[in-house]
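Follow-up to my post from last week.
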Amino acid sequence: MTAQPLRFFSFAAPSRFYALAGRLLPLFWVMAVVLSAIGLYIGFFVAPTDATQGDAYRIIFIHVPAAWMSMLLYLVMAFWAGIGWAFNARTAAMVARAIAPTGAMFTFLALWTGAFWGKPTWGTYWVWDARITTELILLFLYLGYIALVNAIDDVKRADQAGALLAIVGSVNVPIIYFSVAAVSLKNKSAKISTTAAPKMASTMLAAMLIMTFAFWAYAFAVVFMRTRTLLIERESHTAWVAQVVERKIPG
Amino acid sequence: MSWNSAAEFFAMGGYGLYVWSSYGVTAALMLAEPLLARQRHGQALREAEAQTFTRETE
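User reply:
Got it. Predicted complex:
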């Protein structure tokens, strides 16, 4: 067999994507675990107690990464759903579906950790301000997307309907992101950077950014896992899946 | 280092309830999700295998 030239869409072929994602999985898991360990160590043992918020601020090391991932994953999901729809690309549509549960989980975690941070700092678990409300809408968009694609039996039509919802819903993401300006007076991260000494801020920032990369690697790993599952489920009639189950391709 | 003892660490300066409620649920979900994903992958492989076997014996 002659070697096929590698083109931009080469890895979009289901069998290629399956094998490549399988090889990358251990790398992303190692990154997620190692970065989490470093980030949590800095967050709990190097970063000092905040002058105004005490140790309650340490929730920032998971709250902000979860909130960032919730928004980023939504845009990535809408992007791949759109690519899948526009170019009739099967793998892209499956990636979009694989992202949704992880995005919903990070959205829930952003709300949950935000509530447990809001209570000691603002005195309440919940306020209906612009940012928290639009983040809640983001959770409903993820859940709506998951419900919609699972409610339609025709896979192709389900992917198209999901893509439409994902793309229209992505208007919500910049609203969440920029709504920080509207509540800047009581914004928690702004408070930390303005009141803490510069040296304190740098270790806090380091822990937060390292945890963000850890969550990012985690998201890659779990989304690749789920995409591989969807590939097997949808392509179970094909020769390459038969090769996978006969252990000719690493499963 | 901000802590003099394990008890002080878990107390989190009086904010233990809030800090550990946040970290606990985050850890639980981020451990459960990959396990569920792996379970479903194994199931998909078994079903594909059964399908392949049926095709070959027909």
